[in-house]
Amino acid sequence: MDKENKLVAQLRTVSGSSSSRRLRRAGHLPGKINCEDGKCLLIQLNRHSFEMMMRHHSSEHLLFDLEVDKDKSRKVLLKEVQHNPVNDAVMHVDFLQISMTKKMRVNIPVILIGEPVGVSQEGGVLEQLLRVLDVECLPADLVETIEIDVAALKLHETLLVEKLTIDPKLTILTDKKLAVAGVMEPRQEEEVTPEAAAAGATGAAEPELIAKEKKEGDEEAEAGEGEKKEESGKKEPAGKKPESAGKKPEAAAAKKPERKAGK
User: Fold this and answer.
1) Closest among 170, 186, 54, 179 to 112, alpha carbons compared
2) Degrees (nearest 5) of the Cα angle 47, 94, 19?
3) Residue 75 and residue 66: Cα distance in Å, rounded?
4) In terms of CB atoms within 10 Å, which end of the chain has fewer, N or C?
5) CATH 3.40.50.1970 fits 104-184, yes or no
6) Which residue has the higher pLDDT, 82 or 250?
7) Terminal Cα distance for the chain, rounded
């Protein structure tokens, strides 16, 4: 293994978020090793050295010779790197001690190479549908990425896992029927014409106008009903007759015409 894949760490006796913060402020990186016997070792590394080393790799699933407190180095797999969600700084690392004679299961990133025929000649768009492959292999056969050539893909074609050609030392455990990549037609956004935009604006304004007129009509109707109720409430006192009751018409009270003399 290359010299750049060697790490030096120290055991740490304290744990917890507050102690981890103190370590990071002091330039250290907290981590742990999951040993083959089931035990867990708490360690700390030089944070700057680890970050500089990771810049030379495209994957975080790497093998290392890890030396702890000048003890005999052990083979470990970098299982997880925790990052700060704000600035992406490394916060914590997890290692898994492995045996070089036992196969292990890892997720390896997929990298698409080449320009598909469906893109260069048929105007399609390449879409990557699968980002990692679940693979089983010996530690010595581990690779950082798996490159897939998609140059032969035509428009409306997809590349399935079962059609991949990779190193025979790697056993793919991912579902064989899953699509890795495909060439699709470009998505076209529907253009809105000025006439359609104007019609949409008119249609949006009409309900508001109708609602307003309806509201005014309801208010007028309610006002009319209120007036009717007010008039019907004004009734004559009980037992009182109308002024005209009991009076004879003036024409009936007038005297009859006098008869002329001699007749």
Assistant:
1) 179
2) 60
3) 6
4) C
5) no
6) 82
7) 161
Reduced to 3 states (helix: H, G, I; strand: E, B; else coil), residue 48 is: helix
> What's the residue count for the chain?
263
- The helix, strand and coil proportions of the chain, stated in percent and rounded to the nearest 5, come to 30, 30, 40
Question: Of 157, 37, 55, whose CA–CA distance to 99 is shortest?
Answer: 37
Strands 6-11 and 63-68: parallel
Confidence of residue 213 (pLDDT cuts 50, 70, 90): low
* Residue in 257, 48, 63 with CA at minimum distance from that of residue 144: 63
CATH number for the segment(s) 3-97: 2.40.240.10
Alpha-carbon distance 46 to 10, whole Å?
9
Residues with Cβ within 8 Å of residue 60, at least 6 apart in sequence = 54, 78, 80, 81
| CA 171/CA 180 separation, integer angstroms | 16
- Domain residue spans of the chain: 3-97, 104-184
Is the full-model pTM beyond 0.70? no
- The identity of residue 117, as a single letter, is V
According to DSSP H, which parts of 59-193 are helical? 117-120
Structure tokens belonging to residue 240: 């009182």
